[in-house]
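Chain A, query sequence.
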Amino acid sequence: MDLGIAGKTAVVGGSSQGMGLAIAEGLAREGCNLLLCARNQNALDEARERVAKAGAGDRVETLSVDLSLPDSAARIVQTATRKWGGVDILVTNTGGPKPGQPSSFSDDDWLEGYQKVFFNVIRLVREVLPHMREQKWGRIINLLALSVVQIEDNLSMSSTTRAAVVAFAKNLCEEVAADGITINNVLPGSILTDRLEQVTAMQASHFGDDPEQAMQARVDRIAAGRLGRPEEMADLVAFLASERAAFINGLSIPLDGGQLRSVL
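Chain A, predicted structure.
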């Protein structure tokens, strides 16, 4: 299937490892130009090699950036614009805020959490919109978490701050859909990454459980009977970024193998 995005320029956040890297590789296979963004330059250098081999060749650049800094979003978009003329596809992917129960956080904790998740997204979106509106085409995909619709033990701040992104995306859809821009959220369930192993170990420690048993219990809650693979996330994001997904807008789409228990 030709997704119609060869030659488009994509910015992928958190793309030095895990799902972000898999998404960058997936978009490279579709012929996109890629700007990989993360904090660790050494990890980015390794990711660049993988994305180049996946199909990007010399059409991949990296930028070491801390998105908690207000000017970072502008730096990212300026870098992509200088190289390729603008950002056509934006994949936001932020690190998780601190774990804990809702009543355990101070005002400063909450402010830090919203800076790390919510403000990172809206700053990047604000920077890419002028180019997308001018060309009457754009794709924005926010990589969030299943916890925005089904709570996870000890991840209350992640759930709350990412839910704010869902509300922002739905409202923005009303504003920009007529300009040929789509904005959707992907809600990964249990995808096999280092991050999942870290979260599961944290939850096991919090409740005094064995990490291996905690991981098996997680698998047991998935109807498919297995963990998801990062490349499955990459396939979904590539489709949402494509010409073929032009009428999918303002949605939050779980990728969870049947982990979500709600009917609607």
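The chain has two domains: 9-189+231-245, 190-227. The first strand starts at residue 9 and ends at 13.
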